[in-house]
Amino acid sequence: MMEEVIFSLLVGVSVGLSAGYLGSIMVLEKMALVGDALSHVALPGLALGILLNFNPLLGGFAFLFASSVAIWQIGRLTKLSFETIVGATFTLSLAAGILMIRDLEVLEEALFGDIAQVTLTDAVIGVLIASAALYLTRLIYNKIVLSMISEELAISKGINVARVNLLFLLLVSLVVAMGIKITGTLLVGFLVVVPAAAAKNLSANLSRYSWLSSAFGAISASAGILLAYVLSFWETPPPPGPLVVVVGVAIFLITILIRSMKRITV
Q: What is the residue range of 216's domain?
């Protein structure tokens, strides 16, 4: 039992940190719903993994990877926004996944997450993926922010905006795929939206904003997982995903209160 808790916390903190950091860019770029929509795109891949008896997370990531490349390419050809393209595909993916998964118990695990089966391998993979995502995002962070301000200015500085956008989408896909293990496809988008929104309430500069977003993501994930284990003695214990969301929303409400108090004192 203790090993499961440790492994789950390792995955949760890793995913929370990286999702919060990437989410800080997505909220700035008004792409908050893209992370949520991408999580739904993973469902057919999870279903294929279940049907063909291989690791569903591998199927989910493969589907996310292919979808990210397709979204990027369609965006280049049509000049449509990421939100438009993802919004046009995520409901179809969600419907396809639900139709492919007929076992309600398996479907519930895919939709809401299941940390009871987290292994040492999952923990190691989660830490490695999160570390790589944090490092690579750190390298391109300023480039993405500059391209948000002015794509023409970014190009004049020698930045390949299309390539940077593709790398960012792939990194989001990686983190979303790992987050599915904790919160499931329905709620993983929360980890790239709410922690960043909470951090924005307390941040006066970009550096503080990005790292606070990471911290809030890690706290939300780890506290939600711990609550799930504490409540595991219930006859029907709640899945970890909703508890992660509850903790994150509580943090968000606290930041609103703190911001309001600062305004009153000023």
A: 2-265
Closest CA to 143 of 125, 122, 160: 160
Report the C-alpha gap between 251 and 170 in whole angstroms.
Answer: 28
Q: What is the CATH number of the domain that holds 161?
A: 1.10.3470.10
Q: What is the pLDDT of residues 52-65, one digit of tens each?
A: 777 777 777 788 78
- Cα angle 82, 169, 62; round to 5: 110
**Residue 65: CB partners within 8 Å, gap ≥ 6?**
170, 173
Q: Which helix (H) or strand (E) holds 211?
A: helix 206-230
Q: What is the end-to-end Cα distance of the chain in Å, rounded?
A: 49
Domain count, the chain: 1
**What's the DSSP call for residue 238?**
P
Q: How many CB atoms lie within 10 A of CB 3?
A: 11
Tokens at residue 155, please?
A: 């190009």
Neighbours of 55 (CB within 10 A): 13
d(CA 193, CA 23): 6
Q: What is the pLDDT of residues 117-160, one digit of tens each?
A: 677 777 788 888 888 889 998 888 888 888 887 888 888 888 88
Match 């909220």 to its residue by tokens.
27
**What phi and psi, each to the nearest 5 degrees, are found at residue 218?**
-65, -40
Q: How far apart are CA 40 and CA 60, in angstroms?
A: 10
In tens, the pLDDT along 156-187 reads 888 888 888 888 888 888 887 777 766 666 66
Q: How many helices (H) and strands (E) in the chain?
A: 12, 0
pLDDT 10s digits, 41-90: 777 877 777 777 777 777 777 887 887 788 778 877 777 776 677 777 77
